[in-house]
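Most newcomers find our protein records easier to grasp once they have seen one. A learned vocabulary of local backbone shapes supplies the integers on the structure line. An example says more than a description, so a record of this kind follows:
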Amino acid sequence: MYLEKIQKANDIQLLEEEELPVLAEEIRDFLIEKISRSGGHLASNLGVVELTIAMHRIFHLPEDKIIWDVGHQSYTHKLLTGRREGFDGLRKYGGMSGFPKRKESDCDAFDTGHSSTSVSAGLGYVRGRDIRGEEYSVVSVIGDGSLTGGMAYEALNNAATLKTNFIIVLNDNNMSISQNVGGMSRYLDDVRTTEAYTDFKSAVENAIGSFPVGGDKIVRHLRRTKNSIKQLFVPGMFFEDMGIKYLGPVNGHDIRALERAFQEAKRVRGPVLLHVLTRKGKGYWPAEENPARFHGTAPFDIATGEPLKKKTKDSYTDVFSKVMLDMGKKDKRLTAITAAMEDGTGLAAFHRHFPDRFFDVGIAEGHAVTFSAGLAAAGLHPVFAVYSSFLQRGYDQIIHDVCLQNLPVTFAIDRAGLVGSDGETHQGIFDLSYLSAIPNMTVMAPKNKWELADMLRFAVRMESPAALRYPRGEASENFREFRSPVEYGKSEWIYEEEDIAVIGVGHMMDTAAEVRRLLKNTGYNCSLVNARFVKPLDGGMLRELAKDHQLILTVEENVKTGGYGEQVEAFVEDQNLPVHVLTAALPDDYIEHGSVDILREEVLLDAPSITARTVTAWLMINADTKKGQKE
């Protein structure tokens, strides 16, 4: 088994060329077996096995730098740098990350998780290398889907001025997560049809070179002229016209061809883009047939590709999808926007029924926000469905283009809170803070599936910006009997008692209810309130609580700074209310990968930990009260 010979970086360079295709098969078998048990990103990794092998054969790590855009396709890279044993703990708490991590290995040159960043980071490495007078290669790998992100073009424009080597690998599999869209996708479609270009060019040069008189001179002239044969066969010559040398397309599953291409790319004095054609999911037919389904997969049966755990309840995303479809039938002004996440955000059904009112803008969240603002200004009501961690990429546009003009754009924020195995780059733990800081923005969080439906309908009726955030996974069906109408800025009383008041935010209402149960079992009186609105804050409810409660506990799955609890603390202090506030929130830190339950325990945001803190706070409050009375 050749894979067992790879114990550390660069061991692959000791293998014979004829052994490499067998190694590629072993790697695919290994990845399929491991990911079928642990879950993870499968299709993207199967597509880059030969590409990764070729890079590790030509470049020497960690001296040379390979920067993976997004990074979910770095599993083969991890195998070839001696981390095979780590796959048993892949994406588990305390185990190996599913993305490149500098703290995990010197061979991981840059931490990644979001798209369209690798060219910028690579260019920084190149400039740093040149300033320090060092000599090493820098390779930035970017997918064709990531080229829809504006940051990639900013970096390409900047890279075009280089006079030293910088290799950009365009991993072109015609996919991001959903099918690629837009002008760049069409352009690359045209380029893909010119695979015969390189062979044809060589044939022409050989033919002209055989002319008895002047042939060599003509060939030299053709090679010097940028707008020569290639200009005739590759439409637009987009990259070369920018000043970036273009090589390819190259078969991304032909290791020998890839190695030759990388050797040629290393000789270029300046930026060079190597266009590599790969097949997402290659080597495993279910992933080849349905690469989107195997982009990020739960554990599955290898024989059939079917998930091991059958879905029994609707997720929050499913509920959102159904309500959007229902509203779309009744409201012709309703439009839906996604940034290359049609399936992940639940907009596929809306797309099928209302194709003229559905827009996939590609991996371009900033553009998606301003595009939504334009739709709203034109008299429509756009709903931008987006993962919490990806909406961060459009923060300026939310402020400048939506909220400054007070335009009716609804942000449906999926994967809010802890998402688990994808780790730091994907945890949706900042949205309550960054959205609450923006004037004109309304921020809501539903406690269960029915409240999500009610809040979505409420938001679409508003004539101002609104955001509702909900988590990944099964939608809560608790509190079914509590379904009062959504009133702007008003919280919802669930149980009204005295002494201690627990306020839950969104999906953390289930945890808040468990905390109340534990407190009641210990003998404490305890009210329970559903916050509903994070912005505006329900000051009237807080004033009511202050009348017959000594302690308010807030429970949210967001960082503490700028979150709901901190806003409550500020309000209580500003209004000089006679009540103490205890905030249960996430630490102001980046939360690593692992199951959500384990992560909550580690950061003390599980019900037992919160209850213990609450009891301690209550005892301290009453001890201080008794001490004051004695004095």
User: Anything to note?
Assistant: The two ends are 79 Å apart (CA to CA).
